[in-house]
């Protein structure tokens, strides 16, 4: 395939929403309202089909952020405190509070659009934990994307969505982001989107570290493998400042199929133990004091829960089990009436299976395949490989402006959720330092960002321009892997092994090996050090050189090539930031063996920025404002 055979399509809009996930759907829904008032155009571009794209593709069994402010049980301050503690103090209170004060209304919209939420006998939502509510969420994404599409349709010609277009690159006019370039993954079409404001909501990054699922299970992951670092690449390449790029998330999940644990820990009150039946959260409680004040507060931060479990595994006390059997027995034992107890047992059993069927179907298959009956058999749990997911318990992403009324110090610069690059906004997994937003909070943050981005469009109404002679250069560069393959494919009789090029799958394996072995992946017990990180960085530079030789035999592989370039940039910013932060703050996510303790002097954000002019990286600390 030759780049010359590709049609170039130029689309002009006011607000460009990149991604079609939870944050994008929230953005489209909110944007439609404000765009109507100002007669502005809104365009959404997703690499997949919005109905089942992104992290919620398979559905979810809970909404993990709902305050229930109307009931008066929780306050916004409580939530900020909880998130800050879970992130070992490194959190933007202004961003977390902004999402928290609006999130309930988003959840009420989901219900109005048809999402079934569990209710108790009085008609109240059933809480999983303090902040989480249970849903029958297999069709969660269909419901939310339908509402987003309907809102866009209300705009007539001013509301458009494009699916199966992979966004690769930001388009800049000096220091302002004025659009994005991408290509169709189905047709020979190259796209340029020109926009007054761009909202980056392309999710998190998966498969940067070597996964535990290899061989037969390759490709299986907790978060969706199709979120491949596009968000971070986009903001980095635009020259935006990033934050918390060191704060990966290592989830603990049911082993091998990544089933969720939240419902077991919070709703069913199950315990996790080592093979001897010891509850390591009790037997190892003294370790938490080393990480005070966060380690000694309740609930224990996710990374420390992981860490105590990892210590068990290191000492040879595995397997680690979720005691589903004991938890179920305990609930039933408290019911004196035999018939009622039996009914409750059946109910719990079906809830346990639904928890998986709603969001991680493969875990239900795993249980079936291994003859596991949760009411009788405990199940293994394990720490997964690292992910970059700021909407869950990681924090990496763009450094964005807070809202005017809540942001203190230097944390507000004109438009909520705008990055340090003019006209470029971020939300959901793409924005950093505001963890625990989850599906509902990401949707809500998308709404906040879209409203703000449209205010930017109103304030800067002139049509945008950029050097259009660069389009051909950009097109040739983005499509180059197709040409590389075409030119050299006859050299060897194996399409995947050729001295003139590298296929994206091999490239990904190489990246994952480097990250796993040098940057503290699962196979080295999440440990790393300056010497290891510097070696990893050296290898990444060779990868950058080799990325010029990526080759694609078709459009799907072209997408894979760019996904892995995106991953490589996320990886580099991660290594550089772990290197910069000379302490260990999140044991259980990663451990710096050369700086094994948490230090007061590092109670700050570690930010980074790549300079598009010079190609240099800049690292800087940013203060945490009291909230
Ligand atoms: O059990 C490009 N999440 C949970 N949230 C909850 O509220 N409750 C739960 O129960 C949750 N759990 C959970 C969750 C996720 C997953 C995968 C599992 C379990 C198994 C988290 C939420 O799902 C998450 O917080 C939000 O979805 C984040 O929203 P957002 O919009 O930041 O990301 P997205 O939804 O993944 O969407 C990304 C979009 O970008 C597109 N995209 N488009 C164009 N060009 C490119 N280059 C692109 N790259 C990506 C994607 O197609 C997608 O549309 S539990 O763990 O706690
Ligand atoms: P998970 O299934 O691990 O994604 O968890 C879902 C929700 O429950 C998230 O809000 C987690 O932070 C929370 N959670 C999970 N396990 C625990 C636990 N042991 N203690 C407190 N909160 C938890």
Written description of the protein model:
- With 627 residues, the protein is of the alpha/beta class.
- The protein has three domains: 316 residues, FAD/NAD(P)-binding domain; 131 residues, Succinate dehydrogenase/fumarate reductase flavoprotein, catalytic domain (Flavocytochrome C3, Chain A, domain 1), CATH 3.90.700; 141 residues, Fumarate reductase/succinate dehydrogenase flavoprotein-like, C-terminal domain (Methane Monooxygenase Hydroxylase, Chain G, domain 1), CATH 1.20.58.
- Helices cover 38% and strands 15% of the residues.
- The strands form six sheets. It has a five-stranded parallel beta sheet, with helices on both faces. It has a four-stranded mixed beta sheet with strand order 1-9-8-7, with helices on both faces. Strands 16-11-20-21 form a four-stranded antiparallel beta sheet, with helices on one face.
- β20 and β21 form a beta hairpin.
- α2 crosses α3 and α15 runs parallel beside α17.
- Bound molecules: ligand SFD and adenosine monophosphate.
- Adenosine monophosphate (AMP) binds next to α6 and α9.
Question: Tags for this entry?
Answer:
627 residues; alpha/beta; FAD/NAD(P)-binding domain; Flavocytochrome C3, Chain A, domain 1; five-stranded parallel beta sheet; four-stranded mixed beta sheet; 38% helix; 15% strand; globular; binds ligand SFD; binds adenosine monophosphate
């Amino acid at each position: 395939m030759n780049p010359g055979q590709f049609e170039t399509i130029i689309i002009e809009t006011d607000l460009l929403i990149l991604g079609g996930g939870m944050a994008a759907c929230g953005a489209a829904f909110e944007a439609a309202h404000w765009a109507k008032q100002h007669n502005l155009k809104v365009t959404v571009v997703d690499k997949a089909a919005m109905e089942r794209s992104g992290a919620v593709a398979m559905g979810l069994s809970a909404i993990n952020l709902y305050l229930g402010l109307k009931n008066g049980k929780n306050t916004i301050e409580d939530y900020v405190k909880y998130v800050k503690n879970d992130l070992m103090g490194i959190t933007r209170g202004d961003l977390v509070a902004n999402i928290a004060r609006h999130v309930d209304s988003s959840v009420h919209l989901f219900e109005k659009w048809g999402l079934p939420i569990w209710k108790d006998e009085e008609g109240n939502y059933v809480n999983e934990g303090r902040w989480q509510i249970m849903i029958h969420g297999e069709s969660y994404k269909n419901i939310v994307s339908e509402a987003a599409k309907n809102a866009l349709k209300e705009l007539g010609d001013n509301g458009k969505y494009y699916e199966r277009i992979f966004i690769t690159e930001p388009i800049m006019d000096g220091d302002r982001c004025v659009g994005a370039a991408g290509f169709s993954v189905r047709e020979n079409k190259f796209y340029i989107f020109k926009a007054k404001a761009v909202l980056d909501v392309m999710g998190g990054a998966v498969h940067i570290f070597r996964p535990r699922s290899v061989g037969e299970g390759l490709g299986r992951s907790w978060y969706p493998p199709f979120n491949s670092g596009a968000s971070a690449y986009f903001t980095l390449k635009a020259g935006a400042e990033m934050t918390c790029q060191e704060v990966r998330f290592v989830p603990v999940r049911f082993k091998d199929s990544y089933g969720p644990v939240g419902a077991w820990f919070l709703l069913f009150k199950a315990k996790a133990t080592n093979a001897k039946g010891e509850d390591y959260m009790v037997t190892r409680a003294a370790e938490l004091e080393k990480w005070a004040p966060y380690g000694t507060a309740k609930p224990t931060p996710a990374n420390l829960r992981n860490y105590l479990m990892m210590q068990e595994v290191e000492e040879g006390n595995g397997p680690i089990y979720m005691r589903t059997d004991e938890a179920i027995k305990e609930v039933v034992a408290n019911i004196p009436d035999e018939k009622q107890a039996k009914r409750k047992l059946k109910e719990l059993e079906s809830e346990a299976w639904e928890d998986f069927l709603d969001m991680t179907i493969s875990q239900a298959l795993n249980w079936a395949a291994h003859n596991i009956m949760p009411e009788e058999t405990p199940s293994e749990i394990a720490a997964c490989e690292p992910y970059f997911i700021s909407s869950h318990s990681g924090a990496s992403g763009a450094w964005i402006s807070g809202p005017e009324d809540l942001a203190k110090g230097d944390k507000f610069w004109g438009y909520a959720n705008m990055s340090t690059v003019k006209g470029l906004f971020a939300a959901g997994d793409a924005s950093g330092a505001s963890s625990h937003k989850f599906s509902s909070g990401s949707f809500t943050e998308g709404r906040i960002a879209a409203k703000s981005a449209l205010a930017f469009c109103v304030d800067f109404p002139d049509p945008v321009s950029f050097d259009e002679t660069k389009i051909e250069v950009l097109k040739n560069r983005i499509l180059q892997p197709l040409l590389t393959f075409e030119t050299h494919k006859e050299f060897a009789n194996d399409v995947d092994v050729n001295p003139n090029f590298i296929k994206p799958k091999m490239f990904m394996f190489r990246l994952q090996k480097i990250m796993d072995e040098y940057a503290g992946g699962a196979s080295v017990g999440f440990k790393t050090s300056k010497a290891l990180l510097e070696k990893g960085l050296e290898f990444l530079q060779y990868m950058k050189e080799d990325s010029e030789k990526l080759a694609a035999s078709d459009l799907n592989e072209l997408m894979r090539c760019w996904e892995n370039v995106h991953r490589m940039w996320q990886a580099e910013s991660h290594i550089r930031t772990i290197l910069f932060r000379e302490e260990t703050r999140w044991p259980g996510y990663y451990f710096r063996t050369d700086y094994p303790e948490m230090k007061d002097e590092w109670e700050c954000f570690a930010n980074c920025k790549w300079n598009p002019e010079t190609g240099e990286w800049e690292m800087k600390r940013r203060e945490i404002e009291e909230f």
